[in-house]
Amino acid sequence: MISSILLSAFVSLPQSVPLQGAECSAPCSYSGKARELRVATPRITDSEIDVDGVLDESAWEGAARLTDFSQYQPVEGAPASQITEVLVFLTDEDLFFGILAHDSQPDQIRASLAERDNVAASDDFVRVVLDTFNDQRRAYAFTVNPLGIQQDGLWLEGGSGGGRADPVDDNQDFVWESRGQITSRGYQVEVRIPLKSLRFPDLEVQDWGLQVVRSIKRDGYSESWAPITAESSNRLSQSGTLQGLEGLDAGLFLELNPVVTAARSGVYDSETASLSHDDPDVEFGLNATYGITSNLTLDATYNPDFSQVEADAGQVTVNERFAIFLPEKRPFFLEGTELFDLPARIVYTRSIVDPIVGAKITGKVGALSLGYLGAVDKELSVDDEAVVNLLRVQTDLGASSTLGIVYTDRTRDSDTYNRVVGTDARLVLGQRYALTLMSAASRTGLGIGAEADDGLFLRAAIRRMGLNFMYNVDFQSISPAFEAQSGFLNREDDASLNGQIRYRWYGATEDRLERLSPYLNFQGHWDHDDFWAGRGVKEWETGLGVGIGFRGNWGLVFNATVSGFEFGPTDYEGLFVADPIGSFEPFRPDQGLFKGLFAANGRLRLDNWDKVRGTIRIAWRETPVFQRSVGVPVEVAQSWMIDANYLVFLTQSLQGEIGVRRSTLNRQPGGERHSSATIPRARLQYQFSPALFLRTIFEYDSEGREDLRDPVTGQTLSLCEDECVLQVGSKGHEFYGEVLLSLEPSPGTVFFLGYSRQMDDRSAFSFSRFTPLEDGLFLKGSYRFRF
């Protein structure tokens, strides 16, 4: 009967009406605004909960209630714009949350029927953060939109979120249930999190950190149960706690995940002027996970399937000097590998390209966190195999600090290897400051008879957080011989210093101007040995900018920079230019060309429209034209760039994404075109149910570069090693299409059927004569057995 009262209160009565007759420990209600943050967790036995988004079971009568949320963005400490209640109780096997999110404009609630892990950027949501080790360093993040669509991951303190955004890695997937519905007064969601899906200490009695945040997208407002302030460098330290959790037992935790994949691919055959298809390739793989204890997990895999569900979006590379970082998306590497999230990318699991077998052990024992990953990787470029071992140990220091060591080893044979050992620390000093330190040494064996190379890496960074004033400064040094083959460092032989100073001013609650944030950026790069010898800077840039946030969740960012480059003669070794009689002379451009280069760019963010949301960025700059393999500036060009990306919500189930990247470089003086790139991309997806969708992707990549030339003589440059090769331009106009049918009722239990095709267009956007380059038909099925 009381459950009926609770439901009717949500639908038709003021939210301040308390739960009548609830049997939880007093007090039943915990006001976040009043800092009643220590929750006596009710434990209910013999509960039968149907997770359907309706809180009508009798078990909810005994739930503790979290109330009185407060805003932390954009106006810190302001009263919550909407009323939110969260109910919580524990059973022998599960942790339950009931979310009652009132809304004075229920017709403005943003909720889409979308695939998993794709709602937090565009929909209203409530996020439950569980710090099961109560160590204020990492936590589980369970996010639901108003329909109960899930997005989950790990909250990592010190991650990319900084002081305002939530530092959540959404790549990890856990097994849990949620359902929601929109009502005339807001929305409500029911959540069940099995204890099997969580890692926690092996203790008889324990406390867990607890935070709940709510995002209201049409306004851009973020509200939390436990008050949040940007004055602290650690967000998890501001959480409340679930108190007195006794006798937690996840029971036997064993998962088996067999995977079957089948693919048939084709490549263009010039003799037949058509695609030539191989026989279908069918493979079987197996993933297994075993909970050694409640806080230590063993993962193993045989012939893992590392296919990606969606192709990486195209990048403009016509004047790119460095390798482009692509995030990890492959399931085996994602689970439990947050330990390898280091201050620098000494570990980058996408460097393990095609593993045959792999194993992981991850967990936490007391203050000690442990992680090991081993794999045998096929090295396709040399038709060989490499053994990869990654080891990470980290210990907690004090309330929020950490100290760790890392070891990586990639060995092809006894004389060909790369090994790195490093140590790092994140020290939280007082409330505002965080100091990050890291050092690493590498040894690289170059083969039989060759002497191994030794290198050194150093990094130090400090960040000051604050509501108004903040800054960060970062120094990094990479010696010439340092190499991390299991990592991703896009520069070598480099020392750098960069940072930002920012001030934020906030308007009052009803002001049109909500936030004004001017800032100063600076960065400099030296050759490693030049820096330590006190010689001059090689690259530098400094700039001023401002961010403006307006009521209604839209904003502008504008900045202007001045940069310069100074490269020496040795940097150009190997580059030559032909003289009038046909002999080659070393190419040495006037470095005065590359100093005092001006740039300006702006970005407009529109999240206040209901059906169309996104950003557009426009940039103009004077920039060097770089020789890609050597990485040195050759001549100067004026660059225009536009990058626009918009989500279009046609219906609750039908969504589209439209984007375009356009870049042009015109030589100076004269304005002759050096290069251009245009990459439009369109994505359309229909969601039949939370588990089933059909998606199509179309992308056209048109890029062209002219010859690299001496800006004085106009002669084409040559790169000379064993022989001289003219640095001639290139053109390409490729069209890519993909269609995918996906059924994923839960993580690990999936069925994919997809087809992709890549074609070459005769000229840019002519669409007149396509030549097929390759295609592929892909089928995948897997089932997650959980014991």
Structural account:
The chain is mainly beta. Among the domains are: 2-246, Immunoglobulin-like (Sandwich), CATH 2.60.40.1190; 335-384 and 395-458, no CATH class. Helix content is 3%, strand content 55%. The protein contains three helices and 46 strands. The strands form four sheets. It has a 24-stranded antiparallel β-barrel. Strands 2, 4, 7, 8, 9, 10, 13, 14 and 15 form a nine-stranded mixed β-sheet that branches. Strand 21 and strand 22 form a beta hairpin. The chain is globular. The protein starts with a helix and ends with a strand. Residues 1-26 have low confidence and may be disordered.
Write a brief caption for the model:
The protein has 787 residues and is an all-beta fold. It contains 3 helices and 46 strands.
